[in-house]
Amino acid sequence: MADYSGVETLIPNIKVSIGGKKLPKGADEDLIAVQVFEDIEAPSMFTLEFMTWDLQKGKFTWVDDSSFDVGEEVEIQMGYVNKLKTVIFGEITGLEPEFRQGERPRLIVRGHDLRHRLLRGSNSKSFTKMKDSDIFSKIARARGLTPNTKDSEVKHDYVIQHNQTDWEFLSGRAERIGYEITIEKKNIYFQPPQNDQQKVLTLKFKENLSEFMPRLSSMNQVQKVEVRGWLPDDKKEVLGKAAAGKEGSKMGGKTTGPKAVKTFGDSITTIVTQPVVTKAEADQIALGQFKDMAIAYITAEGTCPGLPTLRVAKVIEVKGVGKRFSGEYYVTSTEHHYSQKFGYTTLFTARRTAL
């Protein structure tokens, strides 16, 4: 792992590849700003901003260059000097030139990670005798992506995708059982939050962490989640449960939200809007919804000098903000901002299960 300690003393650097090749000659000099927005809950996006006017020749440059055709693969690496890391791999999805009287024309190249393919067109399909992880793999392969899944175990007799985009359908199935959909180049993942993994970096306030604003809220926390349904064939109720003790990783903390709210008396969230046909399915939904609630006990926003290893779906450690809020956090979104004028900065949001 590259050492980015003392990053404020280093010179920011960036490398952009299009179609597996370096930028066209001269384009790197005209590249004035790059932004990468990563998010667990939506396809990540990037923008490349170029000056697109040759003063000597008096003509447009990149606005008409075929290198920036829609569909071209783009890889953006950021870092310092020669220590660069990939922050996004995606495809060009749009071009936005800007022409203003008295100013040099600019070209903004916009793109998204390959999850954007799941947003194209709505579909109506049915799936029989398949698990959610199998359904995900089938759709991902059809979109030219390589699926990596955590076995969801429960097999469904019948699931319908009703006039939905693949993203709407799959993200709904993921949310239902507490899974998330992330991507790394062409490898797309369908799995529970990876908040039990090892930290990828440490941020310390006033050293490599300039702003940190955590928020603890018990208002959305309960001791137990229940999922209730009705089995018409058996003419009986089905009940799934998940309670304190099933939160998963405490991320180095001791007291989770569901345990903390015990002081307010018994509290239960009952879900009756999810159709269930087996006890196993009800238990799976209850556990997924319970864990999703628990990891939102502490949320945080932070700003630091640019760090390319600060990525979504990774665990980081925060120090120097008191005993209560120092510890491990699970990153849910990032913004990497690079410009010739202002250098390289990273913003992030994160969550934590326990204090």
Tell me what the structure shows.
This protein has helices spanning 27-30, 132-142, 166-176, 257-260, 279-294, 322-325; strands spanning 12-18, 21-22, 31-39, 45-51, 53-54, 59-60, 73-80, 83-98, 106-113, 122-131, 146-149, 155-165, 180-184, 187-191, 199-204, 211-216, 224-231, 236-243, 268-271, 298-305, 315-319, 327-339, 343-352. The chain contains 6 helices and 23 strands. Helix 2 runs antiparallel to helix 3. Strands 1, 2, 3, 4, 7, 8, 9, 15, 16, 20, 21, 22 and 23 form a 13-stranded mixed β-sheet that branches. With 355 residues, it is mostly beta strands.
Short overview:
With 355 residues, this protein is mostly beta strands.
The class by helix and strand makeup works out as mainly beta
**Low-confidence blocks of residues:** none
Please summarize the sheet with the most strands: 13 strands, mixed
Radius of gyration: 23 Å
Distance between the termini: 28 Å
Strand content: over 45%
In N-to-C order, the SSE pattern is: EEHEEEEEEEEHEEHEEEEEEHEHEEHEE
List keywords for this structure.
355 residues; mainly beta; 13-stranded mixed sheet; 6 helices
Which helices and strands, and how do they pair?
Blueprint (H helix, E strand, L loop, with lengths): L11 E7 L2 E2 L4 H4 E9 L5 E7 L1 E2 L4 E2 L12 E8 L2 E16 L7 E8 L8 E10 H11 L3 E4 L5 E11 H11 L3 E5 L2 E5 L7 E6 L6 E6 L7 E8 L4 E8 L13 H4 L7 E4 L7 H16 L3 E8 L9 E5 L2 H4 L1 E13 L3 E10 L3
Parallel strand pairs: 11-14, 15-21, 17-19
Antiparallel strand pairs: 1-2, 1-7, 3-4, 3-22, 4-9, 5-6, 7-8, 8-9, 10-12, 13-14, 16-20, 17-18, 20-23, 21-22, 22-23
Helix pairs in contact: 2-3
